[in-house]
Each structure stands twice: as structure tokens, then as C-alpha cells.
Amino acid sequence: MKTIQFLMLVIFFSNSALAQDKTEFVGAFTSENQIFIRWVKGNDNQLFNIYRKLSNDGSYIRINEVPVKLMTSRPEIMNLLGEDYPDFKKAFKLDYPEQIATIYQYQPGLLKFAAVYTPKLAVLLGEGFIDNTVLPNRTYYYRIELTDGTMTTKLVDDFEVKSESNKTAPPTNLRVESGSGVNDLFWDTHDKKTVGYFVYRSETGENGVFKKLNDWKLIFTQNKSTSNMMPNYVDKDVDTKKAYWYKVVGVNIFNEQGIFSATITPSQ
Q1: pTM, whole model, 2 decimals?
Q2: Cβ within 8 Å of residue 75, ≥6 positions away
Q3: Best CA proximity match to 6, nearest among 168, 166, 131
């Protein structure tokens, strides 16, 4: 039995008719009440069934009502992405979901992938399954079967996953630069759970009412001096006669907000 938590595994089939498809098992990603199981298909004709049991010596029961498969066309997927991320096409200028179909991983000084593969997108592509019938802090056992309609094989050895909180750590070293009617915010992060950020602003003090400034949660720009990608947000809706307070929070792959940063004002 294999325990999987934010772990990437790659498995290629070598002794079946499905070998040429090179389907890859990526891993399982957890929150307190959801478990997201992720794989990468070799082709759109493949189907998947997901089985679960509640104890090591229990019996597996299939938990998907129908085989997991490609649920919609690629243009429709891009339109759905546009609903979740209004600036998606404009920012990345991508034509196919495959080009963003990677788990986002941020390392110090390096933006490995520029987009997050959301559970919603994985399900639409037939490359993921969300088990939302789990209870917090409980271990579940899974089996995934791959079929092309005639043959069936296990995608990965049976594995166990514990449903637990996966909140992001607070962004650190929040700083703001003011000038020319804008407030330019920067911060640091080394939390691999984070797939994006929301920026909040208050006009009524550090303990006042904060409003979210950005709808799109991926905020990275290129540092001109180092060519590295770094978290950044530019607040252009600024009245130079007013005082503002800012704080930033990271979100995980389930769009759950974590712990807020410290609050800062341009004068600090």
C-alpha cells in the first residue's frame, strides 16, 4: 500500500495494448472534505473507474457513477476557463488546455509552470476525479482502473490518502512601492501548496473592512534585474490623498484561502 500526499508518480504501461498511450498517474491532493485524484491521459478514448474502501481490510466499491472520460470539447473548455480566469487567454495566449495541464509548483526564484491545473479542468478533460464524500482527518484507500472499452488494467498500485487541511502559509515580507498614482505590491513565498494569491485592501484602517482587489488568482511578474518570476500586484485605483492598507493571502488547488500576511500601508 502506498501513502500519497502531494507526491508525483509517473507510471508507464509496458505490457498491454494500452502501453502506447503512456497514461501517467500524477497523485492525490487533499483538503479536509475533498480528495482530488489526478492523472494524465494518453488519448481521449480512455476511460477510468475509481474504487474506494474505508479500511485496509475492507472491500472496494466503485464511487464514480459512469466511467470518467472527456466531458466536453477543447474550445468549450477554454471558454469555461475564461469564466474562472477572465485574463487567462490574454495573459498566456495559449490555444490548448494541454499546454497548461500541469500542476503548478513554485520554488524560490523559479516559476516552474505559469498556470494551475484546477480540479475542475481535470474533470472536464477526463483526467481527474474529485471525491467530495470524505470526512476530515480520515484515511481512504483507492484503486484506479484504466480501460479502452475492451481491456482493463490498474493505472497504479492501490494507494491510501488522508483527508486533512491543506491551507497555505502566510505570504511574507509584504512591501509596497508608491509612485505615479499606483501602489506596487511585492511579497515572498516558499509554500508549494500555493497556486495563486488574492490581494485585499482597506480604506478604513488596519482593522477596517478589507475588499478583494483581484478576481484572477495568479499574480506573477518578471523581475527585470534577475529575470525571475515573483508575486506582484499593481493597484492602479489609487487616490493619492487617501491612505490604504493591504494584506495578501495564498490559495491552494481547491481555491481555499490560507493564512493572511501581515498588513501594510505605503508609508511603512
Answers
A1: 0.68
A2: none
A3: 166
